[in-house]
Design goal:
alpha/beta, 309 residues, Metallo-beta-lactamase, Chain A, globular
Length: 309
């Protein structure tokens, strides 16, 4: 299977720290590269992570607060400078069109025609290219400004059963034909259906939920996700701040993951108020609600998307 991993570029919230850059998350999905929420310093973090502008095929912006979007001008100008040849689709809240235009043309540079704006609004999907092996769903979240979370899902498929293939006498090129066409006629005239030799295989799902209070849309985005990357700005002791600013605590993030049946929970977007010694509390508080694996993201981590079910 192609490489599917999350490269973490930044994990702080509004204020970067010595150890945590502003937000930035790069999802490698085979030949596709999706950059989420490029905050300040994204170009440098990409370089440290061994990523190039040409690796980016799509950008998804959740909202237009600076820690999630001030890296856009530099990222786009780098795409232009490096003469990236392929289209780069950029999804962002349509209600923030004025901010998109300002960031898109923040300074003078030799522009590129490969940037394809995709403003999102309401509840629905983003147009995808023929080369993209997933659908992209955007749903509104509950924050102080218009904000959207994203869900990437590959189509469901089939897992071939070798013992059934042998039983029905399907071998060699007929196996790929069966996968491709759904049925195959053998030399003896028998017609074998795909369902005779395979079982359904759910497509992989990646969910990205940033600044939000608890809401049903967050659960919907994360439903059955193989990996959920979600903000956990505060610990329980600051729940009142989370409620006031439209953010999540680690415990609330764990509750969303549990309700959605997530396989791997990745916590990020930590407030600068917390010392390194307090960071294990994020995992323990999320784990009080969610009994699956929990990862507290750190800058330049590489986290594999769990294999297909």
């Amino acid at each position: 299977m192609s490489v599917r991993e999350l490269v973490v570029l930044g994990t702080s919230s509004a204020v970067p720290t010595r150890r945590r850059n502003h937000n930035g998350y790069f999802l490698r999905w085979g030949g596709q590269g999706v950059l989420f929420d490029p905050g300040e310093g994204t170009q440098r973090q990409m370089r440290l992570a061994g990523l190039a502008a040409s690796d980016i095929t799509r950008i998804c912006v959740t909202h237009f607060h600076g820690d999630h979007s001030l890296g856009l001008p530099g990222t786009i100008q780098r795409i232009a400078r490096d003469q990236v040849p392929h289209p780069v689709r950029v999804a962002y809240p349509g209600a923030g069109e004025q901010y998109w235009r300002r960031l898109r043309h923040a300074t003078s540079f030799r522009d590129t025609g490969v940037i394809v704006p995709q403003p999102v609004g309401g509840s629905g999907g983003c147009p995808v290219g023929e080369d993209e092996p997933f659908t992209v769903t955007a749903l509104p979240l509950r924050h102080s400004v218009p904000a959207y979370g994203y869900r990437l899902k590959e189509p469901d498929g089939w897992r071939m059963l070798p013992e059934r293939l042998r039983e029905f006498g399907v071998r060699g090129p007929d196996v790929s034909r069966l996968q491709r066409e759904g049925s195959v006629e053998l030399a003896d005239g028998r017609v074998v259906e795909l369902a005779h030799c395979a079982v359904p295989r759910p497509g992989q799902v990646f969910a990205f939920v940033m600044d939000t209070g608890e809401c049903e849309q967050a659960v919907e985005l994360a439903q059955g996700a193989d990996m959920l990357v979600i903000e956990s700005t505060y610990l329980d002791s600051e729940e009142h701040l989370a409620r006031g600013y439209g953010h999540l605590t680690a415990r609330q993030a764990g509750r969303i993951a549990a309700r959605a049946g997530v396989r791997l929970l990745v916590l990020t977007h930590l407030s600068e108020r917390y010392e390194e010694s307090e960071e294990p509390n994020f995992v323990s508080q999320a784990g009080a609600e969610f009994d699956g694996p929990v990862v507290l993201a750190a800058d330049l981590d590489r986290i594999s998307v769990p294999g297909r079910r």
